[in-house]
Design brief:
seven-stranded mixed β-sheet, FAD/NAD(P)-binding domain, seven-stranded antiparallel β-sheet, Glucose Oxidase, domain 3, 16 helices, alpha/beta, 2 domains
Amino acid sequence: MTQDNTFDIIIAGGGATGCVIAGKLAAANAGLKVLILEAGPHSLNVDTHIQPVRYIANLMSPNKSSKSFTLHVSQPSEAVANRRIVVPAGSVLGGGSSVNFMVYTRAAASDYDCWEKIHQNPGWGSKDLIPLLKEIETYTLEASLNSTHGSNGPIRISAPKEYTNVATQFLDVARHYDKRRGVTDDWNDFTNANAYGVWAKYIHDKTGRRSDTAHNFVYNQADNQNLVVRVESRVVRVLFDGTRAEGVEYVASEDKVIHKVFASRLVVISAGAFGSPSILERSGIGADEVLQKNGIPQLVDLPGVGIDYNDHNVIFTHYKACQEAETIDHIVYGTPDALQKHIDQWTKSGDGLMAHNGLNAGFKLRPSSEDLQELGPAFEKRWNDFFALFPDKPVILGGPANAYTGIGPMDPGAKYFALLYALLYPASTGSVHIAHGLDPYGPLDFHHSYLENEADVVVYRWTYKHLREIARRMGFYRGEVLDSHPNFSEKSAAICKPEDGPIDINAPRIAYTVEDDAAIDDFHRRTIGTAWHSMGTCAMKPRSKGGVVDSRLNVYGTTHLKVADLSICPENVGANTYNTALAVGAKAAMLIAEELDLRL
């Protein structure tokens, strides 16, 4: 592997998007010298990354000793009971694609059309991005004749070879209880915003391995000496000649020494919603107030850097299940000896529970007219100004998880399932800024903005009630795990029951009082967390409207410098964000190839 310090293109960040860009350009242009600088370690054939079921233990319990995550701690907020929210970001080659839930969820077509029309980004509409997404995937589930899914790309999409009966039962109850929405074969066709269905996943249908960008775009080019990867190399800042980007400084974990590398043609920052604005600010690009506080001379006045932080916040509620329920608790929390037979099966045939992510069913929901009455005036303006204009935008995303994902103690002999639900377009946004000068390891000044708008609060309240009714009708239901539910009054008809059985599909719904609603809101404020979908902090929109990059991903006020990752999203998307990261990567590679006269 070359140790040269001059390359044609430097990719500052080897996450999901960065690997797509580097891999596509390097594969099509044999003489092109591309360097990926990744802050985290390699993921090549590492069990905790390639075995799907391992993600739960990794993602639900990231800790300071893990090299695969960078933990970002927010400022405390009254809206979440004065807690500091910890948001992990993938810090490993492949980024989020190497550590995420692997659920295949795609944005609404109108999400990308809004990027193009409202935020003035020609070439970023759904008509432009859907073909790129088709090229990048192989969808192995049954698809319609007019499918928006691909059939010959490197990223493979599958359904589990073994459905767990928890998911099957959830969909069966949803079909009969929530007849207004129903169950569909494909709820990720860019148009369906109000249905339940099988949740496809980024898992290889034959090998049972995670389908990430590191293995499918970078590691598969091991013989390409011009594609260079330097891991555990954290980028400090971009080097400039005037306002022309000419390279970057980075710190190697092994020696903590500053190294410099140079790009003859282009620098691409692809360090995510936390990393990319931080690199820009340490490079002197950002708001004057932020830079002055950190003692950094301003190169470009760009106050949009670090603002409009977006995420999907998520809630998990847990339920006890009978012994007949097929869960993966024994896999997720089992001893090495207990896991070995499952590992052997996965190694031999690529199937079994090791090839599972425990999320086999999912949903996207929009409130009905009756639901809107229940949501009340707090949500009315948000609905009229936003959701009513775009009928393909869901309000809530979620599904049943076949495992206990809580933090309280488990009964080793018990079985559990969880219902998770995430708000897809929060009404309020936050910010991410540097706070320790040029120190790339210093904690950031991070404000998340979760539940700071009452419109978001009432949506979560409505969703909790709706999903609880489905859970109570599932045949496997045996009660609620009290520490992952609201603390209702002992006199309340809504009080949670640690030991219970399923109710009839036509049983009356629980009647909640104003006090019960307050208990639900309090529960959400105490327990809400991140869905690991950070975005929006280097928005692609006009500079006059707080934009950081233009529609060709060029950083305003500079040359030979682009940002390409989820930080460029000008507004949120109604889905888990891996698919959008793939779209950004494919589009960025196309733009770069056009500008540098490269093949693709």
